[in-house]
Amino acid sequence: MKHRILHPLFAVWLIALLLSATAAFAQQQPVDKPVVSVLLPLHLDSMYHADKYKFGNSIPRFALPYLEFYNGVLMAADSLSKEGAQVHIEVVDTRQFSSLGTTLYSPTVKQSKLLIAVAQNSNELKQMAAFANSMHIPLISATYPNDAGIKNTPELYLLNTTLKTHCAGIYQYLQRNHSSDNLVFVTRKGTVEPYLKSWLEEAATAANGNRLRWKTVLLSDSFQVAQVKALLDSNKNNTLITATMDGAFGQRLVKQLSSLQPKYKSHVVGMPNWDDVDFKRAEYKGVEITFSSPFISSAGNIDVYHSLSKTYAQKQNSKPSDMAVKGFEITYRFVQNLLANPTLEAFADHVNDRTYKIFNDFDFVPVTDAADNSRIHYFENRKLYFIRKMDGVVKGIY
Description:
Blueprint: H1 8-27, E1 35-40, H2 44-47, E2 48-49, E3 52-53, H3 64-82, E4 88-93, H4 100-104, H5 107-110, E5 112-117, H6 122-135, E6 139-141, E7 156-158, H7 163-177, E8 182-187, H8 193-206, E9 215-218, H9 225-229, E10 238-243, H10 247-259, E11 266-269, E12 288-293, H11 302-316, H12 322-340, H13 344-349, E13 364-369, E14 372-381, E15 385-390, E16 393-397
Parallel strand pairs: 1-4, 1-5, 5-6, 6-7, 7-14, 8-9, 8-10, 10-11, 11-12
Antiparallel strand pairs: 2-3, 12-15, 13-14, 15-16
Helix pairs in contact: 3-12, 7-8
């Protein structure tokens, strides 16, 4: 997601809203309503010193995405309230105590019927999953794209697809759309790159249909345009599969491909984090870029997006960010699913239902033990969208 500088008045309003809403949540005591806890690292302790806000009229970048997710949660809570939904939504700052365990075993969280979590690392997700498993509470991991090696926890739902699944999806996408292209597999030295390479090779072995054939090249971070040109075919479409999460490497590749046009027509398939990489400048002009994502917003339901944006603008004089949209959709959809399917088994059976869909289709699939398919480790969302851009403009979603 892209961060933006906030107008000072908006920053003050957001901070005031956060504090007042948090106090309101804390004062409400659920009687006969199911409790939904949203576990969110709001970093309030880091923003205050002796009850004095430390950042003037601005919000620090480390806290902004979580505050925006929080805003989305508030909007979902407002929509649910207007629809008469009988639920108590508690926003829990996972940074409020010295340990996450203290937060998880607080009275409010322990009585929850659903957890929606924004974990920041594998250790946090492991603790949250262990708690959900011990209490038999469904846990939606909203944004963290990793399973943290978690086993035997059917209460866990990974909404943000793992990189391994992205690699399998990329291979299938290439089979469907680019099998006749001049395919070039580009990678670099790094810690993540060997995993990406092995997962793509594993996808090639497991996939049905004709196996793709590609040239493979390992480039240094200072590679030159001549090295790229040698891989291209002027008589065919060139599709370069770039197995790296390094945005600067991707920018260098696209810049050099742009300089080789129009003789060499090129298309680059990158990793899911490329949505945050800037390819709008003139030096990247004319090169199509595709990346996978489990999330879309306006393209999923333009009417709802316009309505959401209008409400958001009235309150904040701003468009809703990706994190705000996620906070809204995830909270609204899974709270409704809980209310319609209150038991753990019913929730699992209906988790993919489209009844309460807003923007995205989800396809949660049980990840099982290789030796015992009945042993579920967790559920993973394997619905991927492929977003195609040129010059920073979306050209298509597949």
